[in-house]
Amino acid sequence: MSLSQRPKALLTDVFGTVVDWRSTVEKHLTLSASESLNSSTKSIPSAVRAAASEISWPAVAQLWRNSYYEFTRTYDPGARDKSSFKTVDQHHVEALHTILVDHGLDGLWTDEEVQKISMIWHFLDPWPDSSPGLAQLNGSFVTATLSNGNTSLLSDLARHGSLSYTHIVSAEDFGAYKPHPSVYLGAAKKLGVEPQECALIAAHLGDLKAARGCGYQTVYIERPQEESWSSDETAKAKQEGWVDMWIGLDEGNGGFLEVAKRFGLRN
Ligand SMILES: *[C@@H]1O[C@H](CO)[C@@H](O)[C@H](O)[C@H]1NC(C)=O
Ligand SMILES: *[C@@H]1O[C@H](CO)[C@@H](O)[C@H](O)[C@H]1NC(C)=O
Ligand SMILES: *[C@@H]1O[C@H](CO)[C@@H](O)[C@H](O)[C@H]1NC(C)=O
């Protein structure tokens, strides 16, 4: 372990790092589509039916997630005033609608149903190590979310997944989205610690790099299909050693349990 000093606060990314958005969203889309297609009270145009039988719901889940990534990555806090801050919920509804239109699926669900389906992002199942691992870590550190998800969404996820956090911190608190520095710096300030006393735990090297640029220590948890950096870039990052703690896929007890173990906590 090469963490220069034991951090006081552990902040975690949430989507993909703590919760397995992919399997939850795929299942939910698949089920919602078959419910709609089976409904005897709905008249769905035959072209939409045909499109729905062809579509890959895992691919839709990925497009939906990509749209969120683009949305947060390109969000410019200076270009909007705080009252017009667009929430992740709003984004999810609009993005799903656009994906449906683009794939000839407009009409499979009513607008109300699209809104309801979009709330699945509040009820994502955690990876198996997340709840027990966070419980151990929360016993020894100040723990907090550090996510682009809206505060109520994060509270719902924490409740749904029995995730032990001392604080729920959202990018929403700072009117910006990660990787904008104001989010990492604002979070440290909100917790009353220096950035150097914080470690970010995430499954995305881009997030860690931005946090590190703000003075944070960094913990990487590999998760299946989560890294957007190429395997070459990932290997290079590992070799360069700028990530302070690197937890490989299926290493030791896995994910957060392995983080707890490396910090000397009993598993
Ligand atoms: C929809 O109908 C199909 C075929 O009858 C069935 O296999 C499937 O379980 C149904 N799905 C739901 C959600 O009712
Ligand atoms: C966060 O999302 C909830 C609904 O999920 C919404 O009621 C709330 O207004 C959102 N927060 C902000 C600041 O828009
Ligand atoms: C996390 O730790 C804090 C501080 O010890 C405690 O107040 C809180 O109840 C814990 N959270 C959970 C969900 O156990």
Automatic annotation (TrEMBL):
Pfam families given in the database record: Hydrolase
UniProt superkingdom: Eukaryota
Organism: Exophiala spinifera
Family: Belongs to the HAD-like hydrolase superfamily. S-2-haloalkanoic acid dehalogenase family.
One of the record's GO molecular function terms: hydrolase activity, acting on acid halide bonds, in C-halide compounds
Keyword terms of this UniProt record: Hydrolase
Name the record gives this protein: Haloacid dehalogenase, type II
